[in-house]
Predict the structure.
Amino acid sequence: MRKRLIASAAATTALGLLLAIPAASAGAAGAGPGAPGIGDPYYPTYGNGGYDVSHYDLGLDYQPATDTLTGTAVLTATATQGLTGFDLDFALTVSKVTVDGRPAHFATSGEQELVVTPARVLPRGHRFTVAVTYSGVPSTVKRYGFTSWQRTPDGAVAANEPESAWWWFPSNDHPLDKATYDVRVRVPSGEQAISNGLLVGRHTTGGRTTYHWRESEPQATYLATLAVGHFDITHGRTRTGIPVINAYSTALGANAANARASVERTAEIVDFLSGYFGPYPFESAGGYVPDVPTHFSLEEQTRVFYSPATFAKGVNTSVVAHELAHQWYGDDVSLARWSDIWLNEGFASYAQYLWAEHEGTGTPQELARQTYDAHPADDPFWTVKPGDPGPDKQFDDAVYDRGAVAIQALRDTIGDHAFLTLLKAWPALHRYGNGTIADFQRLAERLSGKDLTSFFQVWLYTPAKPASFPAGT
C-alpha cells in the first residue's frame, strides 16, 4: 500500500501461535472452542484460532442499485485442535451455516465475530467444510470510522488494509492463514466483475452475467479484492508469458490518460523487478482503476487497486513499481504479524528507488541520502520505528521512507553481492508463506557473514536519527 492513513485498535496482547490453544491429544479428546483471535499484538481480534483455511469458494450476487450483496461462502479448512466451535470474521447478516453438510448453530459476538457450533466435535486434523449463506449492504458496515467497501456510481469496490474481507465474505481474516480462491459474482448484464487471478468462466442467463475468477496461489484475506462496474479491460503479457489484465473505469475523466499511461507499463515493470526479486510468483498480473474518491493504492494480489487520485498530477509509474514490488514483498511472502509492516512497505518503497534509477531520475544511494539529509535530528519523522511503529503509526510516512533509507543503509553495510542475493533469497525461501523481521535479519546475517544486531537496532528500532549514513559501495 502506498501512503495512506488508517485508524486502528490499540495493541493489547502478545503474539500467540498461529492457530492458538492446541488440543491436548489427537482426535476429539480435550476439544474446545477455537480462539476468537489469532494473537496479533496490534490487532488481537483479527483472525481466529483452531483451524487453517485452505480454500474459499465464494458464490455471490450483487445488485449495484441497492448495494445488496447475497451469497454463500464455502470454506475448506483443517482443524488444528479438537473443535467444539470456532469463529469466523464477518459482519453481514447470516441466515444459514452448515459444517460438513450438517446444520450448525451460529451466533454473532461483537462487531465481526461469527461464532459457529458444529453438530459434532471436529477432531484435530479433520478436514471440513463450512458453508455460510448471507446477505447485507456492505457499505453500511463501518469500524473505526471507515468502510472497506466503497460504493461507486456504477457498482462497488472491496479494498483496504489491514482488513477488508469481513465486509464481503466470512474468513479467518489475518495474513497468517493464506488460502486459494474461487470467486463467482453474478451482476446485471452490462456490468463487469473483477477479482484476483485469472478469469476462468463467464456466462449470461436471464439478464445477469456471472464472472468466475480463480486465484490458484495462497493469498492473504486482505489481498482478496472485488470490483463491480463498467470497465475498459486490456490484456498483455510479460516477457516470460505471464498474462497481464488491467481495467479502467469508463468514468475516470481527466485522470484516464495518466492512469493508462502508468498502469499499461505493468508488464515492463514486472519484468524489471523480476531481475531484482526473482521470478514473478503468480500466474497473472495487472491492476484496476475504479471510479472512487479515495487517495490510496493497494497491492491486491495479481490485481492492484489504484485510486484515480494516484494519477491526478500526471503519469505515475513510481507507484506502479511500488505496488508491483509488493507481489513479492507482502503478497508472495506475507508478514507474520502486523508489526512487521517494514517487510512490506520498506521494500516496496525501495523498489521505487530501483525504478527511479532505471528511469534515470536518481540512484538508490542518492535518493536515500536525500531523505536522510532532508529530516533533521529533531524531526518527528525519526521517532517512528519502522520495525515496530505501533498500530497508530503503521502506515506513517516514516515506515515507507525511513524504511527504504534503512534498506539502502543495509546495502551499503553488507555490500552489493550479499544484498542483491538477499533480495532474491527472501521470496525464494518463504514462497507463499510468511516471515518476520527477525527471520529476515537472520538471512541477511547468513548471506553477509556479518552480525547485524546493532544495525537493525539503530535503523529499525531506535526512535532517533541514526548518527551517520553509510558510505555507498
Summary: The chain has nine helices and 23 strands.
